[in-house]
Known about the structure:
Blueprint: H1 3-16, H2 25-35, H3 42-53, H4 59-80, E1 90-91, E2 94-95, H5 97-101, H6 103-124, H7 132-143, H8 149-155, H9 163-185, H10 194-214, H11 217-220, H12 226-230, H13 235-257, H14 265-276, H15 285-288
Helix pairs in contact: 1-2, 1-4, 2-6, 3-4, 3-9, 3-14, 4-6, 4-7, 4-9, 6-7, 7-9, 8-9, 9-10, 10-13, 13-14
Amino acid sequence: MTIEQRIEVALSEAVARTSCPGAPPTLSRAISYAVFPGGARIRPRLCLAVAEACGGTSRKVSVGAGAAIELMHCASLVHDDLPCFDDAAMRRGKPSVHRAFGEPIAVLAGDAMIVLAFETLCEAVADTPRVAPALMRILSDSVSAARGIIGGQAWESEPVVDVAAYQRAKTGSLFVAAVRAGAVAADNDPTAWRALGEKLGEAYQVADDLHDAFSKPEDVGKPVGQDGLHGRPNVIAEHGVTGGVGYLKQLIRAAVDSVPHCAGQADLRTMIEAETRRFIPRQLAARAA
Length: 289
């Protein structure tokens, strides 16, 4: 199977556990709706790519870790779209979960996917307990109030926003988790991989800011113009359009250069370059040339 197929199988198996006898069926349907069909699955693909670049042989661990991180990401999207935050009508080209199932089920679906992420990781490391503590800590950090997606969401409710902390937590934390988890899954030290995750996370956030301003809803599968509508910090307000595009290019180059020495370093750098080409909106491609 390809990397993409392994990820989808792992996610399908995880979501299937929510529809066991006695479980509330509407909640299970909402979870499946939030996970499938997915987006680019960039975080789990990055996790598996790092594990393979490091020479990892336990695909069960890396696939499970990647799937757990993707479930965290899906949970964050469901919560981000809620009326108390963005009140977004669309996500991935279809009605957002709270529009399709109602707000109470959407809140519970997001919560359930966070728990399901840990269940998925526990299942993946059952035969390799030596990596379990490190992977559990990486996953918990990625969702924590201090450095994870919960803290990132909370910054939007603060009267004064620490922009760097906000972006590191809301967007960067799951990228950091993906590369560190991939290294641990391959029995490598995750410390050297943090810079790659941080640079990719920041680049992805800058790209999201640019898409929010210049892309169409049908291109990105969600509402646009949200940064201006909600008064959120963004790269255009800070650097302007041309400066924002230039900053994105710098981040991408820095991410590629930060890939640590490993057996698959060249292939991983090529993969990252290919992925990040899609970060720049088509409308701004000429400015990025």
